[in-house]
Every structure is written in structure tokens, then in C-alpha cells.
Amino acid sequence: MIITRRDTLVMGAGAAVATLLPLQAFADATEDATMEFAAGGAISDGGIELTAPEIAENGNTVPISVSAPGAVSILVLASGNPNPRVIEFNFGPLAGSQSASTRCRLAGTQDVFALAKMADGSVKRTSATVKVTIGGCGG
Amino acid sequence: MAENVKPRVRVPRSASAGEVFEIKTLISHIMESGQRKDSDGNTIPRSIINHFSCDFNGENVIQATLEGAISTNPYFQFEAVIQESGTFTFTWNDDDGSVYTDSKDITVG
Q1: Residue B1 covered by a domain
Q2: Are B104 and B92 in contact (CB under 8 A)?
Q3: Residue A71 buriedness (CB in 10 A; 0-12 / 13-18 / 19+)
Q4: Which residue in the set A86, A95, A137 is minimally distant from B70, CB to CB?
């Protein structure tokens, strides 16, 4: 097979598109999950706290905690995971505070988002960047 | 049914009415995410605990919907506030339909 200059250009462009596509898909999935959770409510920044390590050595167990006074439910999204949804907490009448902690898996260095739905339907959002040394998706 | 699933829960023995106290839960579970592949390249099917809930005397404290991104042996820490003595019940629902439960009594005095 003879590879012409034109072929090389086409292959190069194809490779560039192939690398960009999954990233785009992940961002869209995060956006979709955000919109689904907000269900038309206004999204604003602040009013919610997300505690995550700046650097996680092991992406398989990354401790995260969320806290949003007055929230009905809190959703955590990992924008760089194959499925961005991590966990959704719903607080009942006996919850001592609107906060919870757990451990999650992160596929790689990425932004983690926390969204809190307030009693009036509005949504608070915050994010944290976590650097992951070893990814947690078995790949 | 996933094997060796053992729930562990830490709740104080007693509390005063209206006091906010901490509850910690841990359950041993492989939490297979459905993203991994075996040595032949076949995807290992997802097998996780998909829902957790904590109730006190029939009233809800917290519920959580888990996804594949929750680590092996799911751990939760949260706070509760109660007015009378009673029993906390903890429920974990597995993808395969199994339900794991644990309960802890607490005295208000």
C-alpha cells in the first residue's frame, strides 16, 4: 500500500477526532446528568461543600465528603469516569445534618462535581479537581 | 448472591434527645463496576449494591443511590438526630436482588 501525502493528512485528522471524541462524550454525560438532576431548577455556585483530596494515589478508593445545609438531596458526579454518576444522597427527616462521606473510584485526574438540590428546587453546585496517580477502572 | 457480605455499623449506645451524632457503616462487597474486562477481553458484568437506606423507628434518616463508581466495601458516614429511644435499621440492596440488613438499638436518656 502506498501512503500519499493526502492519506497521511486524513489519518492524522482521523486520529485527532478519535482522541477528542471520548472526552466530549464524557463532558456531555456530565452535563446530561446535571440537567436531569436539576430538573429545570436554577443552578448557582456555592452553598455546598465538597471535600476531596487534591492528589489521590489510588483511584480505587478516593474519600469524598459533601455537605450542603438545607439540601434535600446531593448528587456527586465524576466528569472523567465512563459513567459520571457516583452517588446520590437523599436526606430524610431524621438526618442530623445534610452531609455524608463515602469512598469512590476515579478513572483518572479529573473534576468532581457535587450538586445539591434545595427544598425550593434550586440547585447549588461546586467542583474539585482530583489528581489521580493510579486510575480506578481496572484499565 | 455475592459472597461474604458482612455489614458493620457503628452507632452510639445512647444519646440525648435532639443531639446530633455520627453513624458509620461499612459492608464488605466486591462492587464489580461493570467496566472491567477479564483476561479473555470479556466485560465482567456489573454486580454492586445499588441502594442503601438508614431508618429509625420507621422514619428515614438517609438514602443513597450507589453507582459503579463506589469503591469496594462501600463505606458511609452521616449524622442523625432523634428524640426517643428506638432502633436504627440499615438496608443494602444488591443488584442480584439480595437484601442485607442490620439493626442497632439506641437509648435516649
Answers
A1: no
A2: no
A3: buried
A4: A86
Contacts of B60 in chain A (CB under 8 A): 92-94
Give the pLDDT of residue A99.
Answer: 95
Give A-chain residues touching B78 at CB under 8 angstroms.
89, 95-97, 99-101
Name the residue in chain A with its Cα closest to that of B56: A94
Q: Is the pTM higher than 0.90?
A: no
* Distance (Å, whole) CA A84 – CA A33: 8
Please, what's the largest Cα pairwise distance for chain A?
72
Q: For A35-89, write each residue's pLDDT tens digit.
A: 888 888 888 998 999 999 999 989 999 999 999 999 999 999 999 999 999 999 9
Q: Where are the beta strands (DSSP E) in chain A?
A: 43-45, 49-51, 55-58, 62-67, 71-78, 85-91, 95-104, 110-118, 123-134
Place of cell 437523599: A90
Residue B20, in any domain of the structure: yes
Count up the domains in chain B and report the number. Answer: 1
What is the C-alpha separation between A78 and A101, in angstroms, rounded? 15
